[in-house]
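Support reply, case 0932

Customer input (verbatim):
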Amino acid sequence: MDEACEQAPVRVARRYTRDMSGAAFIYAVVLVGSVFIVRRLDPPQWVAILLALASAAPALLMMRAFLRRLQGLDEFQRRVELEALALAAAIVGFASFTYGFLQSFAGLPQIDDALMWVFPALCFTWGIAQIFVRRRYQ
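Our regenerated output:
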């Protein structure tokens, strides 16, 4: 029984790495192809919309990989992950909310394609937040 418990996190990590790597590869291929088509071929708007949606779709595979990993963790690890994710969501949400006020009230510049950067900012901040949440439990 102990051997099975020790191997479970390894299986979860391997599956996560495989799923996330596959999703990242698909994302890169679709994104490069979509950008090439939009920038070089000037397609009609409906095609550009489809390409934009296709470029975002692999993020669903990444979220699925994350959720499968989360389900494979024990209760303590899951708590750490979710606390870090909540902290990251609070930080990114508050930062974007605050910058919106600064744009409206103080005339700070608009950030081009700002919405496109929210999800990557959340993922990056979540990674940093994990360090601090884990440290709190040591």
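We compared this against your earlier run and they match. Two observations from our side: The chain has two domains: 1-73, 74-138. The CA atoms of residues 11 and 72 lie 9 Å apart. Please reopen the case if you see a mismatch on your end.
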